[in-house]
Amino acid sequence: MSAQDLRPVPNTKEFVMPGTPIRVESSVIAEGDDLELDSWLAADGSEVESEQLVAEVSTAKAIVEVTAPVGGALRQSLTVGAVFGPEEAIGFVDHE
Question: Rounded distance, CA 88 to CA 91, Å?
């Protein structure tokens, strides 16, 4: 994620990533699992469709395919090899 991808939050000094977050489906994650981003299947900035496979993530027991929640421009916020928690977004789909 770069500074040019961030948008200001009105009436604050905060900035946010636009769009809909891409997260690993909670049904495939065991409590306390750390996840690792294995690969991106779509390039940063590319147009993706709703339900298109965009990444592969490893859990303690499996490799999980991650899909785009909506169609739009993919914005990757983690790099391959990043370890992250179950609630963290790996990227966003900018559908504005």
Answer: 9
Query: For 81, which DSSP code?
Result: T
pTM (2 d.p.)? 0.78
Domains of the chain: 20-94 (2.40.50.100)
Q: Which residues pair with 74 in a beta bridge?
A: 93
Give the residue carrying structure tokens 């690993």: 24
Q: CA-to-CA distance for 96 and 94, rounded, in angstroms? A: 6
pLDDT one-digit tens code per residue, 51-69:
999 999 998 888 999 999 9
Q: Which of 52, 64, 56, 60 is nearest to 38 (CA)?
A: 56
